[in-house]
Amino acid sequence: MPLYVEARLPAEAATWRELILVPLADVHIGAAEFDERLFLRKLEWIAAEPNRFAIINGDLLNMAVRHSKSDIYSETMRPRDAKRWALKALRPIADRILSATTGNHEERMSREMDVDLIEEIAEELGVPFDRAGCVLKVAFGPGDGHLKRMVYTIYHTHGSTGSRRPGGKLNHMEDLSNAWEGVDVFISGHSHAKIVYKERKLVVDNRNGRITQREVLHVNNSAFLGWGGYSERKGYRPSSLGPPHIILRGDHKEALAVA
After folding, report:
1. Rounded Cα distance, 199 and 201, in Å
2. What DSSP string describes 128-145?
3. CB 101 within 8 A of CB 118
4. What tens digit of pLDDT does each residue of 91-108 get?
5. Which of 87-95's residues contact partners 24+ apart within 8 Å by CB, and which partners?
6. DSSP category for residue 94
């Protein structure tokens, strides 16, 4: 089962009218195409305001190893150096990272050596970690007059689709939600496609004898990876760089994303 995490927010969160969550995924530190400048700018942006937070959602490190698809000879950092670089970059926002999970690139090492560098990074930063995914409870804001605060449930996992077409990637996002009830936001990645969409689900409320509707936000993360190398050889199209920003409202129940 995924790890259940209740976000640790400061006392001032009770006054926030919105909270912004940035998924840090598909960063690929160590790859020749890694956009270091964009990544560091995003970390600075998160640190600039107290209501901005992040999650780590896999493939933080590129992790080219001997038998991987990535070209080990074009890497700019060895895995241990990439881990050190990531720790140095993330440490200033360690208290803003709410949870972390691993991706298929880090799994290359965990399969061969039973070592998960994202788990080690999360432990050193004091961030809750689960290898498969996390359920994150976020409660903040002044509420809407009836509630003292707004509560959101977020599920994030790296994802695994091999589809090249946008429709196939969207289908994979939808599949993530089919097994869940009560989640407001689903976050995935892996496919390097910036996709945001909403749907509504019918909810039978037997306690109050009524049928309500629940709005669900789906967000798929893009990458911090320029086009070239493996993506060029495989014929993949360039993808939009950087993550969507997820905005959670604190004065009424609404989750939206800015791509």
Report:
1. 7
2. -B-SS-EEEEEEES--SS
3. yes
4. 999 999 999 999 887 777
5. 87/121, 87/124, 87/125, 89/39, 89/40, 89/43, 90/43, 90/121, 90/125, 91/125, 92/43, 92/47, 93/43, 93/46, 93/47, 93/54, 94/125, 94/126, 94/127, 95/126
6. G
Helix (H) or strand (E) segment spanning residue 55: strand 52-57
Q: What angle do CA 18, 98, 26 make, to 5 degrees?
A: 100
pLDDT digits (tens, 9 = 90+) for 108-144: 776 667 779 999 999 999 999 999 999 999 999 987 7
Rounded to two decimals, what is the model's pTM?
0.90
CB 62, CB 34: distance < 8 Å? yes
81 CB-near residues (< 8 Å, 6+ apart): 30
Enumerate domains of the chain plus CATH numbers. 3-258 (3.60.21)
Instruction: Please tell me whether residue 245 adopts helix, strand or coil conformation.
Output: strand
